[in-house]
Amino acid sequence: MQLFDGNELKKVAEIKAKYPESKAALLPVLWMVQEKQGWISQEAMQYVGDLLGIPNEHILGVVTFYTMFNNKPKGKYHLQICTNVSCMLRGGYELFNFVSDKLGIKNNEITDDGMFTIEEVECLGSCGTSPMMQVNNKDYYENLTTEKVENIINNFKTGHEN
Ligand code: FES
Fold it and tell me: What predicted TM-score, i.e. pTM, was given to this entire model?
C-alpha cells in the first residue's frame, strides 16, 4: 500500500525530525491517515508501522486506545454524543437513544447509506452547555434537545447548513 504522496511523505519526515524517537511521531502521522481516509485500516496501520519502524501491535494498541481514532469506516457524519456526568444529568442518554432509534443504528454502527455513524463518548469539555454532540471531530452542537438534534440530522440529510 502506498498511502501517502510525495508531499505527505515530506510532512512525515518533518514530523519525525522534531522528535528524538519515531514513536513520538506516531500520533500526528496516524492523524494524517485519518484526515485522508476518514478511518485507520489494518493496511494503513501496517503502512505507518513500516514508515516509522514501529511494531504493528503497538500501533493497534494506540489506535484502539484513543477514541479520536476510528478503526472502522465511519459515516459521512460521525455523531459523537456525550453521556458523561454533566451531559447524562441533562439528558445525554435520552439524546443518544433518540438518535440511535431515529437512525436505526447502535453505538459505533454505520447507516446502510453510509451517511451516519453514532458513538457514545466521554466528556468533550462542553459540560456547561450540556447535553452536547460533536460532529466529525470538530463541530459542537450544544444545549441539545431531541427536537434540536432531529432538526440537525434532517438538515444533514437534505444538505442544508446547521
Ligand atoms: S460531560 Fe458532556 S461535555 Fe462534559
Answer: 0.74
